Amino acid sequence: MINYSILIPHKNQPLLLQKCINSVPLRDDVQIIVVDDNSDPEIVDFNNFPGKDNPMVEIHLTKEGKGAGYARNVGLPHVKGKWLTIIGADDYFNPCLSQAMDEFADTTYDVVFFKGTAIRLSDGKESTRGDELNNRIEVALNTGDFTLALLYSGDVKKFFNMNFIKTHNLTFNEVRWGNDVVFMSWVAYYAQSCCASNLPIYCITESDTSLIKSRTKESLIVRFLEEGKNVEIVSQRFPFEKSIYYWYFRAWFNLYKVSKAHALKYLPKSIKIGGVNFMKEIINAKFS
Questions:
Q1: Which of 10, 276, 277, 282 makes a 20 to 30 Å CA pair with 224?
Q2: Which domains does the chain have, with CATH numbers?
Q3: What percent of the chain has pLDDT over 70?
Q4: For residue 146, what pLDDT is reported?
Q5: Strand ranges (DSSP E) for 15-87?
């Protein structure tokens, strides 16, 4: 019986992908799904693709080149496990993952949140990139309130119950940046039963080439659009009090001040009005 399916979208990072696969504990109840997003054959040896000889690994090759959101959606129908966890090909799991799998295999939560670690690929030193979600999980552990954890838009460091995913027909937006934002918005909207753990199962790697580091005009516009959709969804369930405004202020204000001239031109009217009003509200909440 497969309890856990691990979905890994991949593009042009074979050595890091192999490290990621190697970090998964050898267990009979684990399925690893690798979806390749049209990698360059000059970079990836497809005859010796990472995980090819690993019995836990299924490899799905796509040629469309539509990005990590598309790769995630290609992988979803192949999930066999009760639980789904998602990991970037450049990240890896910490040894305590197996302990977490034992602990939560028979539970029925919609979502389980975990802490994590982070390092810089350039020198292997600790990074602060995962601190924000760790802090939100600490709030959930101390108070039982999962609001801040649910409003974090990253899809990693979590176990998702596949019955929950299927019931609400959750998929990923097929955009190059922020493809998990709207997915996590709907998770936040629907999730009723959540749990948090102190186990740091996941290690984020930080590099200058990561998609999250992109500050091009196109990437900023796409992120702005995705965050606008996020606000429209989650605001239907969560009242935006000042403590929550602060988290959104950090994410929105940097994008807005850099890209507002471009973003406002392309935003659909409903998101444009809601987004601008929301920006005014969070600025007032932050500085009042």
A1: 10
A2: 4-209 (3.90.550.10), 217-287 (no CATH)
A3: 77
A4: 93
A5: 30-37, 57-62, 83-86
